[in-house]
Amino acid sequence: METSLAICSMIFGGIFERLPRLRVAFAHGGGAFPATIGRIEHGWQARPDLVAVDNIHNPKKYLGQFWLDSLVHDPKMLEVVVDLVGPNRITLGTDYPFPLGEDIPGELIKLSNYSDDIKAMMLGTSALEWLNMPLGHFKP
Questions:
Q1: pLDDT at position 33 over 80
Q2: If we measure between CA atoms, which residue out of 52, 59, 109, 107 comes closest to residue 82?
Q3: What are the C-alpha distances in Å from 48 to residues 45, 54, 56, 117, 138?
Q4: For residue 126, what are the CA distances in angstroms to 5, 27, 28, 91?
Q5: Which of 81, 84, 95, 133 is the most buried (most CB within 10 A)?
Q6: CATH assignment of 2-133?
Q7: Cα 112 to chain centroid, rounded
Q8: Are 37 and 80 in contact (CB under 8 A)?
Q9: Following DSSP, what letter does each residue of 5-51 receive, concatenated?
Q10: Among candidate residues 35, 8, 10, the one with its CA nearest the CA of residue 22
């Protein structure tokens, strides 16, 4: 819930409009955001007087403009976040140094049905893009 609130605060606070080159990544697949984006959009449509005060744009406009990590612990949820923001906006999440990460970091991605190119993107190249680093640093 807190991650969803952070994403919504940045969208509705106009942060992405004022700072279009800002690179932001959110942990845990965006928290509740992916599962509630429909309701968030409905709030924007139904109550612009409350929701669209500092930003008049549909919140779905910003999908793909920020990164989410892959630490969702569920293959179906990984599909949801990939479908929502694109595989080029999914980075490997580990939860390090906390013990709630995957036993083998990246296992959820590696066991997925995505192509090797998409897996490589989520395991490394999308993070390099987020960090604005040359792709040559990543060797799958």
A1: yes
A2: 109
A3: 6, 10, 8, 41, 44
A4: 24, 14, 16, 6
A5: 81
A6: 3.20.20.140
A7: 18
A8: no
A9: HHHHHHHHTTHHHH-TT---EESGGGTTHHHHHHHHHHHHHH-HHHH
A10: 10
For the chain, report the end-to-end CA distance as a whole number of angstroms. 33
* Burial letters 52-65, b for 16+ CB under 10 A, else e: beebeeebeebbee
Name the residue with tokens 């080159």: 21
pLDDT digits (tens, 9 = 90+) for 1-14: 999 999 999 999 99
The torsion of the CA quartet 26, 18, 48, 69, rounded to 10 degrees, works out to: -10
pTM for this predicted structure: 0.90
User: What's the pLDDT band for 139 if we cut at 50, 70, 90?
Assistant: low
What's the pLDDT tens digit per position in 63-115?
Answer: 999 999 999 999 999 999 999 999 999 999 999 888 899 999 999 999 999 99
- 85 burial (CB, 10 Å; 0-12 / 13-18 / 19+) is buried
CA quadruple 5, 7, 10, 13: dihedral sign = negative
